[in-house]
TrEMBL record:
4Fe-4S ferredoxin-type domain ranges (all copies): 42-71
Superkingdom in the source lineage: Archaea
SMART domains reported in the protein's UniProt record: AAA
Signal peptide region: none
Protein name per UniProt: ABCE1 protein
ABC transporter domain sequence ranges: 74-310, 339-560
Gene Ontology terms for molecular function: ATP binding; ATP hydrolysis activity; oxidoreductase activity
Native source species: Sulfurisphaera tokodaii (strain DSM 16993 / JCM 10545 / NBRC 100140 / 7)
Entry keyword set: ATP-binding, Nucleotide-binding
Encoding gene, per UniProt annotation: ST0317
């Protein structure tokens, strides 16, 4: 079977010679595989039944608007939804199980949010026919005899109630009015408002108006409101965005505690959080914006490992060309040279900014080194970076290296540019889109930025904007790169593409990168040393001197009272369940982070 997708934003019949139609061999032989249609405002549609998938139209289209994939015939039985003619197609659905938290893991734009919308009843599936407006009875007929039938029967007959936390928290904020306390009092159908406030640590912004909440506070508000609903199924779309590590673990614990014996589904890209939170995992694989298919249900450990390996044994499907490995063997060509020159050197530093006091211990960073920075929000990490490059003068102490150049990606990403993606990138670096460079192949293309060159920056999604700004930051020649939360809005694969690019740029240009991020698996993957920031967010922060990955992580986790072990098969870090045998043992021996 075939899935033919046309990106109608890219397709411009008035600017091309209709090559897709003229060169199609089926059309030339007198049949019809592709033609202009009023159904899509005079643009072409492809008939998947007659198209032979030769791919000629894909190559001929000057705007790369067409994508066609040939799939095994058995996929046809699993079609669940298609929003538009020649649009993205979803195969398969996740079956919720009472008493289990199911994690949904996969690339962006492969249908994860669609699945949640179908399971919440917000979207009625059409089984591949975008023009069909099915009734719920027709949907039930379709699922008759399948395991999922009972679930939809209860849902459509209002025997189960749904609570859904959507992905983009900024979006919800527009519709909310009042303080956190007022909003949650109204939402509290379970009489658990005090418990939720404690579990999610919300006291500090309890009386704040929703208009003034930070991203992390807004995220907690929406998670709290979802948990307070008296529902049977709880759906969480990316609950960890904007939260720091302590908050992520609290969130995961809070969800586990308050959803016992319920149906729970969570879409999550932070593997450590997903691993800690989920009992079972469904992987969604496919081609972004073209098709997505739901895997069989795996135990969380096996599912995450299969995902990292890029191979699903039960399906016998390769979902990615290469494995994502944690033992750094895939980066050996970029091994760090411990003899490298010290490039950035600073003494003990102090700085007072209104009511915030920052103290940083003296240290250095060597040529080609990636320093991972960990610590809560509002603890002074960005302030330290600004001191390093001379933007702010410290009250005491100094940076001993002068005249260093900086390339910086801030935490908050705003689309404040008027032109297209191509104009933006070429403004930063003229030859950035030259197709012969590794940067074009490994960064621009793998992040799919080459597909959106003509889009306007202000129209990009959060993930696209993040990728654009990271690529632009890394393309500049600089002594110091600072990437503040590069992982927000990115899926797991994009995180590792970005991580590899960071490492390569830093090594090859003999620069120094400071990477601030709350995804610990990412630090584990590329950081050569770790700098730990601790203190009381918003009041005072202490930055320790950079130390080895293991001692830095150990110190950081000790403070959080969390222990990590290694997965035997993949080497990925895993959180021990609090109070488990390993958790107790590792705390006793002081090994919070095992190598
Ligand atoms: P992080 O990057 O770790 O989030 P920041 O350096 O941005 O931390 O901020 C740390 C604290 O310093 C915050 O409480 C912030 O409000 C405060 N702060 C940062 N810059 C200034 C400034 N220019 N004036 C006053 N307070 C500031
Ligand atoms: Fe032209 Fe490409 Fe659209 Fe065909 S798909 S009409 S070739 S822009
Ligand atoms: Fe025609 Fe081949 Fe394109 Fe199908 S893939 S529409 S057969 S050119």
């Amino acid at each position: 079977m075939r899935v033919a997708v046309i990106n109608y934003d890219f397709c411009k019949p008035d600017k091309c010679n209709l090559e897709c139609i003229t060169f199609c061999p089926i059309n030339r032989s007198g049949s019809k595989a592709i033609e202009l249609s009023d159904l899509v405002k005079g643009k072409p549609i492809i008939y998947e039944e007659t198209c032979i998938g030769c791919g000629i139209c894909i190559k001929k289209c000057p705007f790369e608007a067409i994508d066609i994939v040939n799939l095994p015939d058995e996929y046809g039985e699993d079609v669940i939804h298609r929003y538009k003619i020649n649009g993205f197609k979803l195969f398969g659905i996740v079956t919720p199980k009472r008493g289990y938290i199911i994690g949904i893991l996969g690339k962006n734009s492969t249908g994860k949010s669609t699945i949640l919308r179908i399971l919440s009843g917000e979207l009625i599936p059409n089984f591949g026919d975008p023009q069909a407006k099915l009734t719920t009875d027709e949907v039930l007929d379709h699922f008759k005899g399948k395991e999922i039938y009972d679930y939809f029967y209860q849902l459509y007959n209002k025997k189960i109630r749904v609570a859904h936390k959507i992905q983009y928290v900024e979006y919800a904020a527009k519709y909310l009015k009042g303080t956190v306390n007022e909003l949650l009092k109204r939402a509290d159908q379970r009489g658990k408002i005090d418990e939720v406030r404690e579990l999610l640590n919300m006291k500090s912004f309890w009386e704040k108006d929703v208009r003034y909440l930070s991203g992390g506070e807004l995220q907690k508000l929406l998670i709290a409101a979802t948990l307070l609903k008296d529902a049977d199924i709880y759906l969480f779309d990316e609950p960890s965005s904007y939260l720091d590590i302590r908050e992520r673990i609290n969130m995961a614990y809070g969800i586990r505690e308050l959803t016992k014996n319920k149906y729970v589904l969570v879409v999550e890209h932070d593997l450590i959080v997903l691993d800690y939170l989920a009992d079972l995992v469904n992987i969604i694989y496919g081609k972004s914006s073209v098709y997505g298919r739901v895997s069989k249900t795996y135990s969380n450990r096996v599912g995450i490992n299969n995902f990292l390996r890029g191979y699903l044994p039960a399906e016998n499907v390769k979902i990615r060309q290469e494995e994502i490995k944690f033992n750094l063997k895939d980066l050996t060509d970029l091994d760090f040279n411990p003899q490298a020159l010290q490039k950035v050197i600073w003494t003990d530093i102090t700085k007072k900014l209104e009511s915030f006091y920052l103290e940083v211990k003296g240290g250095y960073a060597r040529e080609g080194e990636v320093i991972g920075i960990v610590g809560p929000n509002g603890i002074g990490k960005t302030t330290f970076m600004r001191i390093l490059v001379g933007e702010i003068k410290p009250d005491s102490g100094e940076v001993l290296t002068e005249g260093l150049t900086l390339s910086y990606k801030p935490q908050k990403i705003v689309p404040d540019y008027d032109g297209t993606v191509q104009q933006y990138l070429e403004n930063v670096r003229k030859d950035i889109l030259s197709s012969s460079s590794w940067f074009y192949e490994e960064v621009i293309k793998r992040l799919n930025l080459h597909r959106i060159l003509e889009s306007y920056v202000k129209d990009l999604s959060g993930g696209e904007l993040q990728k654009l700004y990271i690529a632009a930051t890394l393309s500049r020649e600089a002594d110091i790169y600072v990437l503040d939360e590069p992982s927000s809005y990115l899926d797991v694969e994009e995180r590792y593409i970005v991580a590899k690019a960071i490492k390569r740029v830093t090594r090859e240009r003999k620069s120094v990168t400071f990477m601030v991020d709350h995804d610990l698996a990412l630090h584990d993957y590329i950081a050569d040393r770790i700098m730990v920031f601790s203190g009381a967010p918003g009041f005072y922060g202490i930055g320790k001197t950079p130390q080895t990955l293991s001692s830095g992580m150990n110190e950081f986790l000790k403070e959080l009272r969390i222990t990590f072990r290694r997965d035997m098969d993949t080497g990925r870090p895993r959180v021990n369940k609090p109070g488990s045998y390993l958790d107790r043992l590792q705390k006793e021996t002081g090994e919070y982070y095992s190598l």
